[in-house]
Amino acid sequence: MLEELKKPTAVEGIKRSSNLLRGDLAQELANEVTNVTSESEQLLKFHGIYAQDNRDVRRERALNAETLEYIFMVRVVVPGGMLTTERWLALDRIATNLADGTVRLTTRQAVQFHGVIKNGLRPLAISLDHELLSSFAGCGDVVRNVVSCPTLQANSGDPQLSEIARTLSRAFRPTTNAHWEIFVNGDKAVSREDDCERPIYGQTYLPRKFKIAVAHPHENCVDVFAQDVGLIPATHHEFGTGFNLVVGGGLGRSYANRDTFARLAEPLTFVTSSEVPEVIGAVIATYRDLGDRTDRKRARMKYVVADLGLKNFREEVERRLGRALRAPLALPENFDASDHLGWRTNHDGTHEVGVRISAGRVRDDVNGARVQSALRRVANSFDVTFFITPQQDIVISNVATGDREAIETILVDHGVRMAEELGVVERNALACPALPTCGQALAESERRLPELVVNLEGVLAKRSLSRRPLQLRMTGCPNGCARPAIAEVGVVGRTKTTYDIFVGGGIRGDRLAMLYREKVPFGEIANVLDPLFERWEREGVVGEAFGDFVSRTGIS
Ligand code: SRM
Ligand code: SF4
Predict the structure, then answer these.
(1) Of 2, 45, 360, 364, which is least surrounded by CB within 10 A?
(2) How far apart are the first and last CA of the chain?
(3) 317: Cβ below 6 Å to ligand 2?
(4) What does the pLDDT read at residue 491?
(5) Domain of 350?
(6) Is 376 a domain residue?
(7) pLDDT tens for residues 79-134?
(8) pLDDT (mean) for 154-166
(9) What is the pLDDT of residue 186?
(10) Ligand 2 lined by 247 (C-beta under 6 Å)
(11) 354-392 in b/e burial notation, b at 16+ Cβ within 10 A?
(12) Which protein residue has the closest C-alpha to ligand 1 atom 28?
């Protein structure tokens, strides 16, 4: 029995026999059926593609004995969230021509298309390739989109720092030609014998996904402690500039498996800039060798670090690196988090403006802001750079002084509200996509975020708290894609109509939130939180954030 439990998962077998991520994908993409086999579903993930179905019509179709409405989600890799205007316009066109019309910005600065049909997958990959973009390695058991603070990239004045997301992305991108053969240039599908993969991945890649983020030295907008590996710029008195490297973070949990938990990353070592790829490589190799390939729910690196303990994990990394790691430096004391919204002036005299995108969904609302048209107009008219933020928003950067007013006019004319007009909860609210696309969603998230924001702002307004920022993060299940486990208020789908409420995290991202109430109906969430707001109003010290207050005083 024990032996049986210890067998590698089916996904391990699929990877091993896939011929470096090819499997039967080419044949399946060419056939008439609208979905793919479950084996191909697993391989598609490595190509940045998720097989989904429209859950809004599941029941109706089942009642009519019809097949599911199969659709695909495609996640485009955008290291550091940086996009030229040409690329932005290409993504916008692809959304219109091949997906559901919306561009979905993710909490890891990537872009997702929803509602793509199977026949659209190759045209979509070809369109991306024209812009030197790709969905390859957007998902799957590999290093995912590397996240980096937009300010670090636009404003550090240090080319190594501003390019680090792209440097790391290149360093750990899988090298198999499978994606280009199958999706982009089908004619070359004969060359597979010559193909090879990075030794760090081999034939079975990593046990699961692997996430890297690079923070600003003073702004933790990337949630650096929620990552498998986080880098925080620091200067060593002896070795000069480099990074504190933290390991073992991750936020996903499963209700079905009590042995799963959210965990914050811990400081492992100080590395100089030139050592970064090598040391992260040794960390990944450690995870590749020691990660649990028998249970995908417990296969993330955070469990290796938690099970071994940091000291033993460190020794494993050192063994693979072939030398001792330095001690980490002290973490920054004044770590805060910018939401990047509103105008600011960069060191080089250019300007940038952060624009809030509700739940990262770029589209024109019928009765609201026409943000998609506004961004299209800006991208067509000005020589600027776009950064997607880890808060699902957009920063229009590199704005010349002479263009600032015209850009603001375009935004305002399209009904886009500027930072100072946003509500206190609205401004810092995140939500995952959940229904109708996500197969794992237990409850609504993105679609009900606006209502929840209004409810919470209403309750705060009844008190004298209507000007106090509150960070809200909502997800449709405990996988935690909008990082609710470290939020001031985390609302996590539990059943179709109820949510678990977590409180006490905060914008510094260095504290896990506590479970406050379970199975709360959606309509009662704001009222259930109100007694805590009442105490915050009455007992909080001046300027104390809600999460800090709850963490200091506890919950009951
Ligand atoms: Fe996520 C799975 C969406 C960031 C933890 N995530 C999924 C899937 C692919 C559902 C699935 O497996 O079938 C979701 C696609 C839904 C859809 O319809 O689009 C999904 N995750 C997202 C995005 C789009 C949320 C968003 O609102 O932006 C984010 C895309 C990131 C990207 O561009 O790569 C996203 N996911 C995260 C984060 C936050 C982060 O990385 O900073 C987390 C928590 C951090 C972590 O990894 O621990 C996260 N997603 C998960 C998990 C839990 C993993 C685990 O450790 O168990 C799953 C489930 C899984 O992998 O099986 C998951
Ligand atoms: Fe889906 Fe759950 Fe992630 Fe939301 S948190 S996108 S419901 S997996």
Answers:
(1) 2
(2) 43
(3) no
(4) 98
(5) 342-421
(6) yes
(7) 999 999 999 999 999 999 999 999 999 999 999 999 999 999 999 999 999 999 99
(8) 90
(9) 73
(10) no
(11) bbbbbbbbbbbeeeebbbbbbbbbbbeebebbbbbbbbb
(12) 106
In terms of Cα–Cα distance, which of 148, 26, 126 is closest to 78? 148
Find out whether the beta carbon of 438 lies less than 6 Å from any atom of ligand 2: yes
- The verdict on the CB of residue 475 being under 6 Å from ligand 2 is yes
Give the model confidence (pLDDT) of 230-243 as tens digits.
Answer: 999 999 999 999 99
In a domain, 388, yes or no: yes
Catalytic residue numbers, as ranges: 75, 144, 209, 211, 432, 438, 477, 481
What's the half-sphere exposure (Cβ side, CA atoms, 13 Å) at 196? 4
Token digits of residue 502: 């977590």
Is 216 within a domain?
A: no
* Average pLDDT value for residue range 366-395: 96
Q: Which residue has the higher pLDDT, 426 or 258?
A: 426
CATH code: domain of residue 390: 3.90.480.10
Q: Let me know whether 376 and 490 are in one domain.
A: no
Residues 141-149 have a mean pLDDT of 98
The tally of domains found in the chain comes to: 2
Largest CA distance in the chain: 71
> What mean pLDDT is reported for the chain?
95
Residue 213 above 70 pLDDT? yes
The best mutation among 255, 479, 483 to test binding of ligand 1, ranked by most ligand atoms within 8 Å of the C-beta, falls on 479
Q: Which of 384, 405, 421 is the last residue in one of the domains?
A: 421
Residue 251 CA to ligand 2 center (angstroms) comes to 12
Beta-sheet strand order (sheet of 103-105): 49-53, 70-76, 111-116, 103-105, 361-362
The residue from 389, 421, 453 where one domain ends is 421
Residues 374 and 290: their CA atoms lie apart, in Å, by 48
Torsion angles phi and psi, residue 493, rounded to 5 = -55, 135
Total-model pTM: 0.97
Segment 405-432 mean pLDDT:
97
**Residue 446 pLDDT:** 98
Structure tokens of 96?
Answer: 């219109």
Q: To 10 degrees, the CA torsion angle through 396, 400, 402, 407?
A: -10
Q: Would you say the CB of residue 227 lies under 6 angstroms from ligand 2?
A: no
